[in-house]
Design brief:
With 95 residues, this protein is mostly helical.
Length: 95
Amino acid sequence: MESPYPNLEQATAAIGPVIWIVVTVFVLFSLVALLVITAVVYCRIFHKAGYHWALGLLMLVPIVCIIMPFVLAFGEWPIHKELQRLRSRQEDAST
């Protein structure tokens, strides 16, 4: 029985596109999975800080992802505003 590929170069040329497609699909799947995980993490961070959870999706936008950490670091979080409001209400009730 004769081999369908008489030399190694023809065999690798036939297998090459298949490997390229498999690697491309794997890379694309990995990138999508990484984007989803990143979005979920940032959505949870913004939600726990008291902001709307959808602000975490803005972290996927290139320019905004540079600005939003500054908002989180230096801005007053809504959760802290709520805590301050409740503490002042409790102090007013106790006096």
